[in-house]
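Exercise 7.
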Amino acid sequence: KAEADEADLCVCDIRIWDDTTDRYVLPSNYLRKEYMPEKVPFSKEDIPQYIFTNSTRKLAEKILHKIGLYDLFKDRIYSVEDFDNLKKNETPNVYYWLCEKIGIDAKDCIFVDDSYSNLKYPKQIGMTTVRLYYNNNSSKDLPYIDAAYNGIDNFIDAFVEETKKCPAATSCAG
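Solution. The predicted structure, written as tokens, is:
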């Protein structure tokens, strides 16, 4: 249902039934603090990372606290409510405003989202777009998706490899 609605956030029971063990288990793509690397492969000072969400700031902060990532993004969380807008996929203006607010040119941004419809406007203003997907629905053939990765882990691995090849991230953009 969340995928059909192109939801940015789905609050639901994340357990799945395992027929071989006859019990509920967590899916492999469940984000947990213990899955995070001991050392962050890139620092927020070298390559700033931001959260931009359709959710309210309060909900985003609550979720980040719950999964143990709040300190990584503290003071770098933006919600569409910060820009007096209801959805980020209604106009490219919110992406312009976000770039202006954080002081970064759109061409130097990588916008990562799991909803392909949220990538159209960032691409229009010049951002590099990355779609995270689970299962086989990458949508990477859409003209406004530059790259697609099956899960956050695969994206981070690829990103780390690319930054090793070219330490000055801005000169590798595009």
